[in-house]
Amino acid sequence: MKKIGLTGVMGAGKSSVIQILKEMQIPVFDCDAINRTLLEKGNKGYQALVERYGNRILKADGEIDKKAMSDLMFEIGEKQQIEQILHPLIKKKLEKQMDACSSSIAVAEVPLLFEIGWQTAFDETWVVACKEELLLQRLKAGRGVDEKEALRRLSAQLPQKEKIALCDVVLYNDADKEALRNSVLQQLAKVGEGKDESRR
User: Fold this and answer.
1) How are beta strands 169-172 and 105-109 bridged, if at all?
2) Whether 2 contacts 123, CB under 8 Å
3) 0.70 exceeded by the pTM?
4) 2, 105 Cβ separation under 8 angstroms
5) Please, are residues 128 and 14 in contact by the beta-carbon 8 Å criterion?
6) In the chain, what is the straight-line distance between the N-terminal and C-terminal CA atoms, in Å?
7) Strands, E, within 23-144: which ranges?
8) To 5 degrees, how large is the angle CA 30–CA 35–CA 37?
9) What digits encode the pLDDT tens for the residues 42-78?
10) How many Cα neighbours within 13 Å face the side chain of 11?
11) Are 46 and 40 a contacting pair, CB within 8 Å?
């Protein structure tokens, strides 16, 4: 199996690429979804966080309090502590899920792929990219934020040009979805997929 790590800054179009991959019946695994599962009551991530932080991160019903967790992330040193707890669990679960699928290619959506140093876990890394003015337009239109907030969100991630320099494959999403789809199909063909378009 060829394992591909898919990344890109907010607004670049990862969701569009994922939709195209799923249309081609390529399995796509979502690290954010795995994280949400780990934080459910009784799961490993939940247990590890409660062991460290106790009731301060819990609601009255015993579920994780997302606001308390968000506040905690801004305390000095705690963001790193939380990531050290959750990231190995997410990675282990992701690898297990990818190894269990029968496809000859599997894709993992990892927004912070390079920031957390996971690039070596994949055979190839792909980044979705577009012009910065388009990023801002999409963030403002799709997420309802102003330009200042859009820039703040983008500044919290590794700059797009650095992701491009680090990745094996760049999928430019500056045109329409059909152009993006053709780019994805070209890359899939190179790894032995996409030859049979009847699977769409």
Assistant:
1) unpaired
2) yes
3) yes
4) yes
5) yes
6) 20
7) 28-30, 105-109, 124-129
8) 100
9) 999 999 999 999 999 999 999 999 999 989 988 888 9
10) 26
11) yes
DSSP single-letter state for residue 108: E
Take residue 80 and report the two structure tokens written for it: 């790193």
d(CA 96, CA 38): 14
pLDDT digits (tens, 9 = 90+) for 135-162: 888 887 877 778 888 788 788 788 999 9
String of b and e for 115-144 (b: at least 16 CB within 10 Å)? eeebbebbebbbbbbbeeeebbebbeeeee
Q: Are 92 and 48 in contact (CB under 8 A)?
A: no
* Tokens of residue 158, six digits: 């590794």
CA–chain centroid gap for 34, Å, is 11
